[in-house]
Amino acid sequence: MLERYARYKALELDSPAPRVLRISFNKPDTLNSLDANGHRELTYIWRDIDEDPNVSVVILTGKGKAFSAGGDFSLIESMIEDHKSRARTWKEARDLVYNVINCSKPIVSAINGAAVGAGLVAGLLADISIAGKSARIVDGHTRLGVAAGDSAVMNWPLLCGMAKAKYHLLLCEPMSGEEAERIGMVSLCVADEELQERALAVALKLRDAAPAATRWTKYALNNWYRMAGPAFDASTALEMLGFASPEAVEGVRSHREKRKPDFDLDSPL
């Protein structure tokens, strides 16, 4: 089964059980951040999975202490400085969301530690999302100086309601695994030491379920996300517009200098 995925280098792939494919973010020294190649692989692997007759279910998780810290600074700075990089990342950001939604195979995420950016997108769009108690889920777009793009406009209001979505997205307020379960952001929250075992147990139940019935139910439910497609497309466009702005420059600089950002408060918008 794994030979099909030999070209994927930024993601670690294994099969913990027959017909179960596990994808692990595997840069624990940088909290599983994604460079340009990792972002591209995470975007397009779902098409291969969808067409793989030997895979019935997928587990997505992270190695070490984090799920994924999102895009690394090299990727973010290239988006600020280069139009082609910005346009390419915009296409990948859109494709990632729709590829996860349209992948017919059920996806289980095991969210451990910090979960941010593109990794969090896939983690929350998974059909069954399981967080460890120490998970730290946060969308930090506005702190970075760009609009909340990714998939937040599409799925956060559905998962936790508009009031909670605005609170967390506008203020970049993090939530623990327990809080995420309480407000409906994830399916389950379990003790950290039980996370991987529970994710595999859920994956095995999905593997052994009626495949057509399971996949068709997923397809039908995901029409809720597809209906929000225009709002999502607008949010990603506004996010990329932000990467061409002085706010993103200051946001990244303040992150690197570990200080509070000093944004120009006299915005004409």
CATH top level is Alpha Beta
Mean pLDDT: 96
The beta-strand count equals: 9
Assembly annotation = single chain
CATH architecture descriptor name: Alpha-Beta Complex
Structural domain tally:
1
Structural class by sheet pairing and helices: alpha/beta
CATH topology: 2-enoyl-CoA Hydratase, Chain A, domain 1
Which residues sit in consecutive blocks of at least 5 with pLDDT less than 50? none
H/E series, N to C? EEHEHHEEHEEHHHEHEHHHHH
Strand percentage: 5-15%
Distance from N terminus to C terminus (CA atoms, Å) equals 52 Å
Largest sheet, described in full?
6 strands, mixed
Q: Order of strands across the widest beta sheet? A: 1-2-3-4-6-9
What's the SSE blueprint?
Layout: E1 11-17, E2 20-25, H1 36-51, E3 57-62, H2 73-81, H3 83-102, E4 107-111, E5 114-115, H4 117-125, E6 128-132, E7 136-137, H5 141-144, H6 152-160, H7 162-171, E8 175-176, H8 177-183, E9 188-190, H9 195-208, H10 211-221, H11 223-227, H12 229-243, H13 246-257
Parallel strand pairs: 2-3, 3-4, 4-6, 5-7, 6-9
Antiparallel strand pairs: 1-2, 7-8
Description:
The chain is of the alpha/beta class and 269 residues long. Helices cover 52% and strands 14% of the residues. It has a 6-stranded mixed beta sheet, with helices on both faces. A 3-stranded mixed beta sheet has the order 5-7-8. The protein is globular, with a radius of gyration of 18 Å. The model has no long low-confidence stretch (mean pLDDT 96).
Give a brief description.
Helices cover 52% and strands 14% of the residues. With 269 residues, it is α/β, with parallel strands linked by helices.
